[in-house]
Amino acid sequence: MIILPKSAQTIIDTLKKAGFEAYAVGGSVRDLLLGKETKGWDFTSNAVPEKILELFPDSFYDNQFGTVGIKIRKQFTADSLQKDEIEDIYEITTYRSEEGYKDHRHPDKIVWGKTLLEDLSRRDFTINAIAFDGKTLVDPYHGQDDLKANLIRTVGDANERFAEDALRMMRAVRFAARFGFTIEEKTAQAIANNAALLTEISAERIRDEFLKILVSEHAADAVLVLKNVNLLHYILPELEVAFATPQKSPKRHHMYDVGTHSVMALKYCPSSDPIVRLATLIHDLGKPKTYRVLPDGVITFYNHEVVSTKIARDVARRLRLSNKQFDLLTTLVRWHQFSVDERQTDAALRRFIKRVGKENLEHILALRIGDRLGGGATETSWRLELYKKRLEEVQLQPFSVSDLQVNGYDVMKLYEVKPGPIIGNVLDALFAEVEKGVLPNEREALLSKMNELKSELTK
Ligand code: ATP
Ligand code: MG
Fold it and tell me: Which CATH number fits domain 236-394: 1.10.3210, 1.10.287, 1.10.1660, 1.20.5?
C-alpha cells in the first residue's frame, strides 16, 4: 500500500473536481514504490496549461514543453519562520505524445496526447512510466516488476528510444548507479549499439548526467558500466585507454591497472562533491603517457601529475565546467602527489597549503584517501593522520608578515622612525625567524628580538 502526501493528493483532487484526469507520475511514483524519499512531484493530466493555471493560484508557466509549475508553500507551523517560505515546486505536464527526433535529442514538435497511456509510452524507462492517482496504479510496462527485479529497461524498443534521445543512455546508467540496478540485457546492448549518438548531445547535458552519476551510491560500478557499454569512449576517452596501462611491478604495492585504480579511488573517495569525485577519478590519467619501465622491471610514471593536470584542463573545458570548478579540478589533480612524510618542515607544509588553498585541504585529503584505499594499500594511515594534524597546527601559526603579533607601528615606535623601508626589513627578519621555528610568534618575544635587532642595526 502506498499513500501520496497530502499536498500531492490535493493537486490531483483539484484537477479531478474540475473534470480532468490527473496522476502523479515518473520519478516520484518510482521513489514512492521504492520507499525512498523523492525530490519533487511530477503530475500528468489531460488539462492543458491554460486550464491548470486557472485552477492553481500559485502556478506559473514553466517552459515551452507544456509544464506548469506550482509553488508549494510550507504549512504555517509554530517552528516555521516565514509563512510564505516555498518548500517545493510541483510540476504538472499535459499529456504528451512526442513525434520526430531528427537530431537525436529534441522532439521536433510537441503534440498533446489524448490519453494517459499515450503519455506513458513516451517516457524513458519502465520504472519511470508508472502513474498513480492515490487509488489506482497504472503500470502498462510492468515497471513494478522491474523495480522488484532491480532492472532498468526502456519503454518499447530500446534501439528506437535511444535513437530518439541519446541522453537516455546516460540516464539509464544514472538510475542504475543510484539504485544499484542492472541495465536489462537488450537495453544494455542497444546502448552499446548507439553509444556514438552521444556525440549529438550537448556537453552541458552530458556533464550534468556524468556528475550525477559520480555522486550516486554506486558510482564506481557505474563508471565500469559506462566503459562496458562504450559510452566512456565519448565521455572520458582518457580513462578508457588507462585500463591498458599496468602498474604492477617489483617492489610496488599497486595491484591494479591505471583505469581500475582510478575507479577504485572513486569508490573509496569519501567526498560527496562532484568535482572532488571527478578529480579523484582522473588524478592519474597522465600515467599512460608517462609510463616507463626501468631496466630492473620497475614501472615509473615520472611527472605524471603534470600530464594529468593537462588532461584535467581538457576535461574541464570539454565538460564546460565553471571557472570555479575548473580551478578546483586542476588544483586537486596538480597537487595530488603531496608527501605526508613526517620529516617535512612547517615551511613545506605551509607552501602546500598555499598551493592547494586552505578551503581545499579537506578535498585533497579526500582524494588522497580514495587514492590510497583504491590502490589496495594495506598500510595504516597513521602518517596521513599525523599530517592532517600538522596541517591544522601549522594553520594556527603565522603565514605571512601580516600574521605576526607585532606590526609596523611597533617598529616605528621602538626605532623612533618614520615609515620607510627599514620597517619591512625588520618585520621580514622577524618573520623568517618565526617561520624557521626559532622564535615564537608572541608579542613579548618579538618585541625583545626587535630590540636586539635595533642595537645591531644602529651599531
Ligand atoms: P530524478 O529523481 O532524478 O528527478 P526522475 O525520474 O524524476 O528522476 P526527471 O528527469 O525529473 O527524472 O524526469 C521526470 C520523468 O520524465 C521521468 O521519470 C520520465 O518519466 C520522464 N523523462 C525525463 N527525461 C526523459 C527523457 N529524456 N526521455 C523520456 N522520458 C523522460
Ligand atoms: Mg524528477
Answer: 1.10.3210
Distance 88 CA to ligand 2 centre (A): 12
Mean pLDDT of 22-29: 96
Q: Which fold has domain 150-230?
A: Hydrophobic Seed Protein (1.10.110)
Nearest CA to ligand 1 atom 9: 27
If you measure from the C-alpha of residue 67 to the centroid of ligand 1, how many angstroms do you get, rounded to a whole number? 13
Domain boundaries defined on the chain = 6-143, 150-230, 236-394, 401-457
Q: Ligand 1, closest atom to CA 164?
A: 28
How does pLDDT run across 80-117, given as a tens digit for each residue? Answer: 445 555 677 889 999 988 766 777 777 777 788 899 99
pLDDT in tens, 112-171: 889 999 999 999 999 999 999 999 999 999 999 999 999 999 999 999 999 999 999 999
**How wide is the angle at C-alpha 220 spanned by C-alphas 216 and 226, nearest 5°?**
95
Distance CA 175, CA 277 (A): 18
Residue 177 near residue 263 (C-beta atoms within 8 A): no
Centroid of chain to Cα 121: 32
Please tell me the number of the ligand nearest to residue 38's CA. Answer: 1
Q: Mutation test of ligand 1: which of 124, 160, 162 has the most ligand atoms closer than 8 Å to its C-beta?
A: 124
Domain spanning 6-143 has what CATH number?
A: 3.30.460.10
